[in-house]
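Appendix B, Record 12. Input sequence as logged:
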Amino acid sequence: MSYKQKRRPRRTEAAKAEQRAPFRLDPFQEEAFKEIEEGHNVLVAAPTGTGKTLIAEMLIKKVLATGQGVVYTSPIKALSNQKYRDFSGELGKEKVGLITGDVSVNERAPLLVMTTEIFRNWCFANPEMLDHTTHVIFDELHYLDDIERGTAWEESIIFAPTHMRIVGLSATVPNSRELASWIADVRDQAVKVIEERRRAVPLELHWISPEGGVHDGESAREHIKQLGERRRGRWPSPPREESAETGL
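Logged structural output:
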């Protein structure tokens, strides 16, 4: 017995690719980039995940389009390596260099990713290498407050060539205006402060017990109470001192 296989209905129209709406910057990003375009030093203080790095990426693309150079500094080698990979994938390896204490790759590239200590050293020993560099971006600028390493940020800001503009990014600068005032004083240049207080990624606090359990505020208080009760029950009372007169 023969039968005719049922075919799927023929589609009269080809499926259209979903069109995404144009990317729209947040107001603080627009304000920061506007101040950068006007030639100002800028300090951006915004919570983690809000989009500070996008400001740096926009600046980098603008500078590279003019044939000039830009330096991106980070506090640790691992982050420098990560940024080097990210920028190389987006811009092409020929446009990106990496300089840390361990590695030196394409140091004549228009975009140089380096640790802050390396940039500080360049300001002292190789300032001519920065003649065509218009901006230095300090990622995690709050490291300036670090007791052991903060001087690298201080000296970098003070001794960076005067033709360079500074863009500082940080999520944890409570005194951003005081810091901006200091930068403006030591460089004799205006510094614009851009603050964003809205937190894109919700922040929730939890506690981990000695046993490895995770607790919210209420259960953490209850767990601490139980630990205290168990501890008081486990440890014996201190021995009673004997009387000198009775020997008891």
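Residues 120 and 156 are 5 Å apart (CA to CA).
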